[in-house]
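quick one before i forget lol
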Amino acid sequence: MNFVTTPSMQIKSCFFFCILLCSTQLLAREVPEAPACANDANSCVASPDCTACVPELNYWVVSSRCCQQKSKCCCPCCEFDYYHSSGDGEVLESTYDNMIQSLDPNAPICIMVHGSLVKWEGALNDSYHTYLWLRNAAPNRPLNVIFFTWPSYYLPTKIIPIDANILGKRAEYNGHYLAQLISKLPERHSISLLGHSHGARIVSSTMHLIGGGSVQGVSLNECGIHICCHCRKFRVVFAAAAINHNWLNPGQRYGCSLNCTDCLVNLRNKKDRLLLFYPVLAPISRRALARTGFTYLDRRAIGESFACVHDIDVSQCVGAGHMFPNYYSHPSIAETIVPAIYFSNDE
């Protein structure tokens, strides 16, 4: 099918592009050094930049940036690159074995996935701030944190509707890689997945695969990957989710996503300026889940499984912003998603 743009769509797309490029400037900052810790462990609960609540920086970055991003064979396969953040904030190359050995066996694993137009430096910057944001929200609870990064800065045509769809398909394809990573993690760990923008599409694709679906014509079973969704719990948090609001409905693109999901929290922002133009990016696009939330028809279609789904409105906090710094600059949002990230209501 040939994609044809109208003059109106071209104007909207240009506006979308300008906003997007301006927003990415937020990601150009260097990773700052960890500030000195205060004596009072409770003094920094409300501050995203304070590490007094956190004994030391201890998180992992797993990258699919060097892996093939388009299927040339039946089953996608990725040799990940592994990086560990040391106590002084420096991110150093490491190995899978070191990552597995470092995991707290009594803590869940939170995997955070960024969206599109995030360069490597931006991914490291976001991982640093997101780690502090999550840990300061529940400093007395243990948590293993992994940041999954993918090659999302890719504008081959400079025509935004086309490039946005290319990035969307690439994000979807990385659902195979994230599922592959999860299959390598010990089953004793419950897993929470935090996806921002197109990262929410990766998470949706991953959970659809784990739930028994196929992505781009390939299922996990066909690739010899087996993930027992009854052996551990999965919880999902979406921020600025750049997916159609109906894609999680049964029979839709990611209709198996809720099959193995214990809880899904959608952070709804009806003021998100970038996602206002989401429906014009492709002929089949509907309104974005982040702006619309789950509609009445979505709730009916999902049926009993909707009991595990929660729309939480963060419009007043985030405002018109879309990029992830607009979220991790608000400690109250992290505190709201603690039950989903930490599985804190399982006790």
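fyi Confidence is low (pLDDT under 50) at residues 1-52.
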